[in-house]
Design a protein that fits this description.
alpha+beta, Alpha-D-Glucose-1,6-Bisphosphate, Chain A, domain 4, seven-stranded antiparallel sheet, 3 helices, 32% helix, globular, DUF7053 domain-containing protein, DUF7053
């Protein structure tokens, strides 16, 4: 069972358009990182699987981490690999479009304290990220 499950109705946005938005890595990075400072393509193929170096602003300052996005037929898989001062943090998400919804199942690997903090952050911020993605898809 995933650590977090987030589901957002598509509200009339065509599923194919939402999948196209998920496959747009630049759009995904901007939706996933509301306090984005910068990002750079590192390796891979932007149309299938690519890894980016992302610098994001957090309440305690800036953080840089690796983000791998893998396009799949019904959505995208995201993998955040971060090394905060308190250990390793890996957040993997499966974003899928099905049944009139955008769903995201999130797994978090970290020490107990980091895992609890990351889970709380995901549950608080990801519904808003879903809405941003749907707005961008609609545009």
């Amino acid at each position: 069972m995933p650590a977090c499950h987030i589901a957002t109705p598509l509200n009339g946005v065509d599923a194919a358009i939402v999948i196209t938005a998920l496959h747009n890595h630049e759009l995904m990075i901007k939706a996933l990182c509301p306090a984005l400072v910068s990002y750079a393509f590192e390796s891979g193929d932007k149309s299938t699987q690519a890894t980016y170096s992302v610098t994001d602003k957090k309440p305690i300052g800036q953080t840089t981490y690796k983000l791998t996005l893998t396009n799949v037929p019904d959505g995208v898989d995201s993998l955040v690999n971060a090394k905060p001062p308190v250990g390793v943090l890996i957040i993997s998400g499966q974003w899928r479009v099905a049944g009139g919804q955008l769903t995201e199942d999130v797994e978090i690997e970290a020490n107990f304290v980091m895992k609890k903090l990351a889970k709380s952050t995901v549950e608080k911020t990801h519904p808003e990220q879903h809405m941003k993605l749907l707005e961008a898809a609609r545009a």
